[in-house]
Amino acid sequence: MSTVYSSPSPTLRKTLSFLSSPSLPAPPPPPPPSLFNFSLSASQTRVKMSSLSTQASTTLPPLLENRIVLGCGAIGVDFLATVASYPKPDDKIRSTSLMVQGGGNAGNALTCAARLGLNPRLISKIADDTQGRGILEELKADGVDTSFIVVSKEGNSPFTYIIVDNQTKTRTCVHSPGFPLMIPDDLAKSSLTSALDGARLAYFDGRLPETALVVAQEANRKGIPILIDAERKREGLDDLLNLSDYVVCSAKFPQAWTEFPSVPAALVTMLLRLPNVKFVIVTLGEDGCIMLERSVNQDVHPEEMDVDSVLEDLKQRKDNNTAMPTCISSIVTKLQAKGIGTVSGRLLIGTAEKIPPSDLVDTTGAGDAFIGAVLYAICANMPPEKMLPFAAQVAAAGCRALGARTGLPHRTDSRLAPFLELTTQMVQ
Fold first, then answer.
1. Cα–Cα distance between 248 and 250 in angstroms, integer?
2. What is the chain's mean pLDDT, rounded?
3. CDD domains in the record, alphabetically (predicted)?
4. N or C: which end of the chain has fewer CB within 10 A?
5. Which helix or strand (DSSP H or E) is residue 377 part of?
């Protein structure tokens, strides 16, 4: 990959001025994200003109016939600064690099889905400011339909400061919500009908709760399956979960939501409380994920099995010497959680790719990338045994570059060939 060097543009100089002037109330406009991303080092400004993903000359299968997905949730601008180590209180340190890029859970997940070959539509809200226009431009460049995004004449678009710690490979986020917030009246009935027309799947990240509920209720009425990103307990999230068909959780959510001590018991509780949910996935970062899938087949193993014991058995069967993502499944049986109840289904463990420390850059948006891949997998009718490693592979690709979107792979990425059944011939 060639690298182009240039001196900072006027837009970037304004960015740097903003970062050194904390009294200003709002961030500067981002650079045109569909054209390039800025990344500052101590000695130069790098303008990245191409994707970091490994591309291949491929013979692709046809695109999915029904690949429209509708998302409703957060979008914004991310101001990412990498540092050698996270500062102590009252420290003054220098960043080792800087990037300004689009962000927000829904924006990231749908960008990922678009690069994989879906046709995403997005319901959200921004302000008619320079940041908002940059957000729209970047989403459009990646193939996300922005025609259902509400643009306020006043206020400010959402933004987030993200500090990436090179030492611990962690990131710290400070979010500033947009204003004014989106309300159901912002979305005309005709727009909602058009947004849902032909949709294979609807996805909600738990933000914009009032609007999200209106959209989810209409999707449910039309028989469109719903996936919920349950990152943490939020206002209105329970109403969305009650309409959901699929749930993807953060590591802490199942136990926080159910108040049960173990993840497997919490997952059983979630399926008992949410009778329409087909599966729940809890993502665990470098430890992969755990999935509980409800069985619709009455032909299950008759013996009840303790769900915590099943999980321990699956962990013993993991091949810790394999770097690539894998999946291990229990049999379909009656999974019992003591004092809670029983669910007919199976438990699965998905492993994460073992990324060499030298390749791991930034975990920002890894969960969003995982969800974007799950959206594709559902539309493609992938079985869980393929879906979980596929989603882990997509998320790992994103962790190899700064920011939530820079490293997101495209459909033609050779690393995805085993999952998309591509015939590849690497370009020399």
1. 7
2. 86
3. ribokinase_group_B
4. C
5. helix 366-379
- Contact yes or no for 135/158 (Cβ under 8 A): no
DSSP state, residue 184: G
Identify which has the larger pLDDT, 11 or 262. 262
Cβ-proximal residues to 403 (8 Å cutoff; 6+ apart), any chain = 37, 78, 80, 99, 101, 103, 362, 364, 365
The predicted-structure confidence for 339-353, as pLDDT tens digits, reads as follows 899 999 999 999 999
The two beta strands, 119-123 and 68-72, are parallel
Q: What is the pLDDT of residues 155-200, one digit of tens each?
A: 999 999 999 999 998 999 999 999 999 999 999 999 999 999 999 9
Nearest CA among 206, 182, 207 for reference residue 126? 182
9, two tokens:
């543009």
- Both tokens of 293, joined, read 């899938």
Up-side HSE of residue 185: CA atoms within 13 Å toward CB?
A: 2
Q: What is the DSSP letter of 285?
A: G
Provide the residue type at 273 as one letter: R
Name the nearest CA neighbour of 79 among 35, 145, 22, 125: 22
Distances (CA, A) of 180 to 126, 132, 157, 204, 209: 8, 13, 9, 20, 14
Q: Please list, in sequence order, all residues whose beta carbon lies within 8 angstroms of the beta carbon of residue 30, skipping any fewer than 6 positions away.
A: 11, 15, 77, 100, 101, 102, 130, 131, 134, 135
**Distance of alpha carbon 413 from the chain centroid:** 18
- pLDDT at residue 301, rounded to an integer: 77
User: Could you tell me which of 105, 108, 124 has the C-alpha nearest to residue 116?
Assistant: 108
In total, the chain counts a number of residues equal to 428
| Residue with token string 């719903």 | 226
Calpha distance 364→103 (Å, rounded): 9
Q: Output the six-digit token pair for 225.
A: 């399956």
Angle, CA 81 vertex, CA 393 and CA 180 arms, to 5°: 90
CA distance 156 to 320: 47
Residue 247 parent element (H or E): strand 246-249
The two tokens of residue 71 are: 């998302």
Model pTM score = 0.85
Beta strands 150-152 and 97-103 are unpaired
Coil, strand, or helix at residue 272?
Answer: helix
- Token readout for 396 is 């790992």
Distance CA 88, CA 374 (A): 38
Gap between the Cα atoms of 156 and 256, Å rounded: 33
131, containing H or E segment: helix 130-141
For residue 254, which of 394, 236, 272 has the smallest C-alpha distance? Answer: 272
